[in-house]
Write a structure and sequence with these properties.
6-stranded parallel sheet; 37% helix; single chain; alpha/beta; 222 residues
């Protein structure tokens, strides 16, 4: 099990106004969270004060992360890959572009995201939940999840960590975390869907408890 940073640079390149998120007169954080947790239009393509503010495909945007995943896990045309929390499938599409012929599957709780997925990967996406994966044991060479598992409640997280190990021979999970009070405050102010507000030590406790002995990474709100 290794701690690997695959998306830190991308995450840190975004500018965030934490106080504006909390104090917005039309969409204060509690209201934004209520709308975001429906995982529908408002979450993906609604007002930026709620969440993404328009989650659209941008050619090359996900390519650096796709390359990191491919290189880190030595993916080939013979590999079979699953992304849990795939959203509209943009990252999987980039992986397919870089390795033509690779087998990919994506799973997301949002039917809206799947309905509006990139047409090049849409046929490989399935609606479902991380705690009950509709796949066989060790079906995938790699199962990964970026910024999804922290959205789960404890009972769901327990099952999801076991499930990602069950269906794959290698796994990678990236979750949000905090190391100090400033990062904790920023995470609480910014995140509209997070349910597991945990330090890195607490995340590692969860990994040990559930037998998740695979790779992981953290992102922080500095």
């Amino acid at each position: 099990m290794l701690e690997i940073d695959l998306i830190g640079n991308k995450h840190n390149s975004v500018s965030r106004d934490y106080l504006a998120r909390v104090n917005d007169p039309e969409f204060p954080k509690y209201k934004a969270a209520e709308l975001a947790k429906k995982w529908d239009f408002e979450y993906w393509d609604g007002d930026r004060r709620i969440c993404y503010g328009g989650y659209h495909y941008r050619e090359g945007y996900w390519t650096p992360i796709a390359r990191k995943i491919i290189d880190t896990y030595s993916l080939t045309t013979e590999s079979k890959v699953l992304e849990i929390g795939c959203g509209k499938g943009f990252l999987l599409y980039e992986i397919m572009n870089l390795i033509p012929g690779i087998q990919v599957q994506g799973l997301d709780i949002s039917q809206y995201a799947i309905d509006h997925a990139h047409p090049g990967v849409k046929q490989f996406l399935t609606k479902g939940s991380a705690e009950s994966l509709p796949y066989g044991n060790s079906e995938f060479n790699l199962a990964f999840s970026l910024n999804t598992f922290h959205n789960l409640y404890c009972s769901q997280l327990f099952l999801a960590l076991k499930e990602i190990v069950r269906v794959s021979t290698e796994s990678y999970i990236c979750v949000e975390s905090y190391r100090n009070e400033i990062e904790k405050q920023n995470l609480l102010y910014w995140q509209v869907t997070c349910e597991a507000f945990l330090t890195p030590e607490e995340w590692r406790w969860w990994f040990a408890l559930t037998g998740y002995n695979r790779d992981y990474g953290f992102i922080y709100f500095n």
